[in-house]
Amino acid sequence: MTKRVMLIEDEPNIIEAIGFILSREGLTVDTHSDGTTANDKLRANRPDVLILDVMLPGKSGYDILRELRDDAATADLPVLMLTARGQSRDRETAERAGVSAFMTKPFSNAEMLDQVRRLLASAPRV
Amino acid sequence: MAQDGAGLRGKPLVFLERQSYRRRRVIDAARVLPFIGLLLWLLPLLWREEGAAAVRSSSAIVFLFGTWFALVGAAAVLSWKLAAQAREPGGAGPGGMGE
Amino acid sequence: MTMLNTLVAVCSLYALFLFAIAFAADRAAMRGQARWLRSPLVYTLSLSIYCSAWTFYGAVGSAVRTGFEYLAIYLGPSLVLMGWWWILRKLVRIGRTQRLTSVADLISSRYGKSNLLAVGVTILAVVGTTPYIALQLQSVTLSFEVFGVGDIVSGQESGHTALWVAAGLALFTVIFGTRNLDANERHNGVVMAIAVEAVVKLAALLTVGIFVVWGLLGGVSGALERIDASELGQWRINGGRWTGMIVLSGAAFLCLPRIFQVLVVENDNETHLRTASWAFPLYLGLMSLFVVPIAVTGLELLPAGSNPDLFVLTVPLSQGRDGLAVLSFLGGFSSATSMVIVAAIALSTMVSNHVVMPLFLRFAKRGAKVSGDVRHVVLLARRLSIVGVVMLGYLYYRLSGGGAALSSIGEVSFAGVAQVLPAMLGGIFWRGGSRVGALAGLTLGFGCWGYTLFLPSFGAGVFVPDSWMVAGPFGIAWLRPQALFGIEGMDPLLHTVVWSLTLNAGGFVLASLASFPRPLERLQGAQFVNVFDHSTGPPRWSGKVAQTEDLMIMAQRILGARDAQALFEHEARRQATGGTLPAPTPDFLERLERELAGSVGAATAHAMVGQIVGGMSVSVEDLMAVADETAQLMEYSARLEAQSQELARTAAKLREANSKLTRLSVQKDAFLSQISHELRTPMTSIRAFSEILRDADGLTPQEHGKYASIIHDEAIRLTRLLDDLLDLSVLENGQVNLNLRPGLLSDVLDRAVAAAAADEHGARVRIWRDPRAEEVMLNTDLDRLSQVFINLVANTRKYCDAARPRLDIRVRPGATVVIDFIDNGAGLSAEAQDVIFEKFSRVSDQKAGGAGLGLAICRQIMTRLGGEVSYLSGQGGTAFRVVVPARYAVAAQ
User: Fold this and answer.
1) What subunits touch chain B, counting only 3 or more CB pairs under 8 A?
2) Which residues cross the membrane (chain B) (predicted)?
3) If pLDDT is split at 50, 70 and 90, which confidence band does C615 have?
4) Which of C480, C760, C799, C860 has its CA 20 to 30 A from that of C833?
């Protein structure tokens, strides 16, 4: 069975790029671009790995992550966070919020793919 | 209260200017005058009153009024000097009142 | 009797003459032509009230009875004036700075403005002066009788001459002595009349003397021979009395209420004292010069048993020189009247200020705040006091039987008023003198004088029983009135002077040493003793603004409405309060009190101000005011206060600056994050797709083309962002070069609308314009202006959420052109309006495309063009207003 990756991101071109890379790896990619409804979507349809942008319309990635960790259903979900702000403070904030992996935009496609694979390997079986 | 003319505001001068010095001596004289007068007018206490050697009234009149008008003259001179100094620049205020 | 009628006529004419002079002088003073009234000569002549009828008639009598002793009474005052630098100079300065109204005021003011002392001294003065006034009445009566009855032997009164004289004097004094309320102001009329009288009496005595010496005695040498040959030929004096009288007369000269009145109160210029220092001794010398020759002549020419007190009159009369006698009579009349007039004024001031007014204020119940003028009360009190004082003198004259020698009555009076001396001299030279000391000394001295001299002077058995005089009260021998402590054989006067002044001074010193003065006493003490060091205010009042009105009401009642208002207005101007009422600063209260003191005396003025202002705070701080330290302290605390206010302001500014910095720091962080984000986002796409293009195999041509165009678009987006950032940076730093040129607003708008429409983003918007209004000629940077318009139109296209977006562009021409851009969307929330012009602020989501720099750039551009762009709320939709000056002005930058 194919692993499922959820991508929450608002920039259409980046969605396209990540979607292309992951689907060629044989992963199913669900995308969502609205911050406010992201958590509902996740609870309803839990992926194996979540790729999360920080700056989203409506709700920041950190808030989504915190809420997700507080929810028993998604508390152990591996999350890769992507940010375009790239300050060290952002990394700390993300780690405190309980991120599994953290990458700064722009990223190398290969590295991104490595991170996703690693997270998938560590992901609990459902 | 030393208001003696020239620049005593800062440090006091040991020697006053000639003008201030004169002024002070005139004031000294004005102070001494009544005591001279008292001394002169108490002299009659020593005069002999009895007998042939007694002082005659005419002499007494001449002495008393003589000293009197002499003292008046002295007071007038001092008053005139004080007034003249009060008018001069550097003298004290009106009437030479500022000692 | 014809002679008597002539005399009455002469007297009346002379009185009228005096009235005229007094009236003219008052008028001249009122017209401000009083300079000659205030000459040193007038001042010196006014001092001559020292020479009363006692001098004019009594000196000759005294010479006959006791030889040269009469001279001592003039030597004392001569010495006091020659030594003016010691005492009088200080007394006059104190009197002027403290606005003293009388001797009682001086003592009361010095010892803490004590009303008790004021009343005490007033009583002493009244009691001490009463015999003196009686003496004047007696002398005038005697002189009348001499003419009227022709009885030159006894001169007993038969009619009511004394009463008429007393009434006349009271009338004159009331008319000219109570003109102005301010006792501190000169009584010009009275002073002038007195000066004239001084000339008359000197002239009269000199004329009689010259007549006697050259007319009867054969010149100077002849006169001296005759003197030596007469009863007075040998020098004989009582040494004790000689010394005692010199001291007593000097003391009395300082303390006599009438002398204080002319010497200090009526003093107009301190320099006059300098002239008087020699001129008055000269006057006294001339007055006493011919006394002995007249006495000798009288003894020779007149029958034995003639009253020697009247020789000045009877010698010319006996020689048939009626004219000379009348002149002499006028001289005596002048001496008597001038003394009574001034004494009555001085005493009435004391009585009304220290006795009547305090009582009135107490019994008026409502206190000093009653509305209405109390000046009439003060004036009435003065007038009644004058009448009362003169009538008291008359009463004494009747009671004492009018038989005593003139000089002995004078001596009683002198010894009485001299009791003030220890308190006076102690007050102006010794800071340690206290109220308790002054009270003790005055009480002892006054009591001793009353018991040993004053009461016995009424005659044996009147007040003091004969048995007391002989054996002492209740048989206690050492308390015999004229032999205190068993010391007998002293001259009664000398006995009194020695004992009363010793007890007085001793009591004053001991009680002063033993007591501790109140703060106000210490303040006043310093003020008096160091009057030449600082001539400014002792008591510090502290008042509240609300009291100014009460003070005003009170001041109006004492000073009169006009003067009081002038005083208050002047002070208000000085304080620059803006209103007509000044703030009751300590300085002002002090000045007001002094002004009032000039009218009602220091103690009363103090009490009145105190009643209104409330408790006066004389504290350690006030004491320090004497050393000017309070001023420094107040200045220092004011400075501290100013500094603390300054500090508070600085702190507030710092806090503001700090929060601004914090905000700026936060903004800077946010800005950097934003830039980072805005730059990284397109770069992420570019990198990702370029890697895909590089690494991925088997891409379809469509995919290839699509990804390449994404890279292209994102590269353009990146470039545009960098352009915007650079643009903004240039604008913000003011480095922009404006390309000014003229052009029509309509053309600029056309270009902007076209450019905005060319952008493929966003919905189509119907744009409504008003071509007529747009025909405005502009001279500005048209490209930059166009950039602003493009931004605004593009915004509408991006953000207007209406189903059929519409944009109204309204133009209001003028020197500054106003262009409004109003769409039919939902508009912005208040919070959004606040931040819309900030960098990277975006109202809706990112899909709209821009980096959020557009409006920030617009604002910068408009600022550069001397105009502005702002959000226009309340227009239904999103609305921006652009204001631009039609002609770009350099100053706008």
Assistant:
1) C
2) 29-47, 59-80
3) very low
4) C760
**pLDDT tens string B20-46:** 778 888 888 888 999 999 998 888 888
Q: Six-digit token pair at C58?
A: 């009594």
d(CA C399, CA C116): 29
Q: Which of C149-153, C483-487, C806-810, C888-892 is the least confident region?
A: C149-153
For residue A111, what is the domain's CATH number? Answer: 3.40.50.2300
Are A104 and A111 a contacting pair, CB within 8 Å? no
**Is residue A8 a part of any domain in this protein?**
yes
Per-residue confidence (pLDDT) for residue C600, from 0 to 100: 64
Question: Are C281 and B68 an interchain contact pair (Cβ–Cβ within 8 Å)?
Answer: yes
Cβ(A4)–Cβ(A48) below 8 Å: yes
CA distance A100 to C105: 101
- C692 and A20 in contact by Cβ < 8 A? yes
Count of CB contacts below 8 A, B vs C? 123
In a domain, A44, yes or no: yes
Q: What is the mean pLDDT of residues C537-555?
A: 56
Q: How far apart are CA C273 and CA B96, in angstroms?
A: 11
The string of DSSP letters for C52-83 reads -HIIIIIHHHHHHHHGGGGGHHHHHHHHHHHT
Instruction: Using pLDDT thresholds of 50, 70 and 90, give the confidence band for residue C39.
Output: confident
For residue C304, the tally of other CB atoms under 10 A from its CB is 6
Give me the phi and psi of C481, to 5 degrees please.
Answer: -55, -35
DSSP code, position A75: T
pTM: 0.59
Q: Is A24 inside a domain boundary? A: yes
What ipTM, to 2 d.p.?
0.92
C16: exposed, middle or buried (Cβ count in 10 Å: 0-12, 13-18, 19+): exposed
- Span C115-127, mean pLDDT? 88
Taking a C-beta distance cutoff of 8 angstroms, is the pair B26, C257 a contact? no
Provide the pLDDT confidence category of residue C97 given band limits of 50, 70 and 90.
Answer: confident
Q: With a cut of 90, say whether residue C833 has pLDDT above it.
A: no
- Of 3.30.830.10, 3.40.50.720, 3.30.565.10, 3.40.50.300, the CATH number of C738-892 is 3.30.565.10
Nearest to C49 by CA among C263, C251, C248, C245: C263
CATH number of the domain at C631-728, out of 3.40.50.20, 1.10.287.130, 3.40.190.10, 3.30.450.40? 1.10.287.130
Give backbone dihedrals phi and psi of B49, rounded to 5 degrees, phi first. -110, -20
Q: C-alpha distances in angstroms, C469 versus C63, C241, C456, C460, C830?
A: 28, 22, 8, 8, 110
Using CB atoms, pick whichever of A10, A17, A86 lies closest to residue C846: A10
Q: Which residue range(s) make up the domain with A50?
A: 4-121
Q: Name the residue among B34, B37, B79 with its Cβ closest to that of C275.
A: B79
Cβ–Cβ < 8 Å for C3, C148:
yes
Tokens 């004392």 belong to C76
Would you kindly state where each structural domain of chain C is located, as residue ranges?
Answer: 2-28+37-365+407-519, 538-627, 631-728, 738-892
d(CA C152, CA C298): 12
What CATH architecture is C2-28+37-365+407-519?
Up-down Bundle (1.20)
Residues of A in contact with C714 (CB under 8 A): 13
Chain A positions touching C676 (Cβ under 8 A) are 84-87
Q: Report helix, strand or coil for A29.
A: strand
- For residue A17, which residues of chain C lie inside 8 Å, CB to CB? 684-685, 688-689, 692
Name the domain count of chain A.
Answer: 1
Domain segments of chain B: what residues? 18-92
- Which whole number is the average pLDDT over C178-196? 73
Q: Write down the pLDDT at residue C853.
A: 79
